[in-house]
Structures are given as C-alpha cells and as structure tokens.
Amino acid sequence: MAVLLAGGSDGHVLDSATIYDPARDTWTNMQHMASARSLHSATMLDASHLLVVGGQDAAGNPIASAEIYDAASDTWSSAGSMATARYEHTATRLRNGVLLVVGGCTAGGGPTATAEIYLPKTNTWIVTSSMPGARFRRVCCSLTISKSCSTPMRVSGTGGTSN
C-alpha cells in the first residue's frame, strides 16, 4: 500500500502529486493534477482510483471541479464539476460506491449546507438535499443504520448549527 499526496500548499497552492512507498521508504513524483488546489478532499473510489474534489485556487476562490487519479497509469482525468464550488468540505464514499460531498465554504468564505452526489459509473454530479445546517471542517463516516441504508454521520465540525 502507498500514500498519495495531491495538491495542498507550501505557501503557494500546488498541483503536484507525490506517492510515498512505506515498504521502500521512498517518495516518487507523479503526474500533476490539471488544477492546483488546497483545502480539497481526496477519497478512494476503488483500489487504484482516487477522486480529488473542490478546494481553493491560488487566489483563494473555491473550486467546483474534480479529478480522478488512476494509479495504474499515473494519469489524471476530469470528473466533471459540482454545482457548488467549495473547500473544507467532506467527501464520503458510500457503500453503493457513490460519493457524497457535503458542506464546506463557498465564495465569500461562508459555510454551506448543500450536498452533492458523484456517480463514478457515469462521471456525473447530482445535487441532493441539503443538511439541516451549514458546516465546514467536519468529519463524516459511513454508518449502517438499517439493512438497506448506509448514511453519513457527522462526527464533529465547525460553523453552522449543531445536530
């Protein structure tokens, strides 16, 4: 197993990607993302595909675009764009393979309650129902609450209302 570092900031917003191999204790530079971004999310879609979503650009503007990294070919490809550009959001892979993106900050830095679903099989985004209150800097995880439902659960967060 390896660890991919994608984007972030060293004082400047980065588009670089680097893989750490713990077995060899080595870092290897990989292909760069199409967009430099920080404060984004990165979520595994499967064993060799990583989805990077949103974030902030070098001017501090929220980003709506998403990119998929293919570890087998060391390539990035477009995963379309969300309806709402955001950063400091949460992206959670659900049991059925779709990705739920919730909250974060939008233009002007204010938190949002909006949510969107990414469908990997069709490479499309769908706006879904909003959370009861706006949140950012939170942690979500998938929690099974019945035999037919896997739902994200808010563990902690900042901003908005508390549920």
How would you describe the overall organization of this protein?
This protein is mostly beta strands and 163 residues long. The chain has one domain (3-158): Kelch-type beta propeller (Neuraminidase, 6 Propeller), CATH 2.120.10. It has no helices and 13 strands. The strands form four sheets. It has a four-stranded antiparallel β-sheet with strand order 4-5-6-7, with no helix packed on it. Strands 8-9-10-11 form a four-stranded antiparallel β-sheet, with no helix packed on it. Strand 10 and strand 11 (124-128) form a beta hairpin. It is globular. The protein starts with a strand and ends in a 5-residue tail after the last strand. Mean pLDDT is 86; it is low at 148-163.
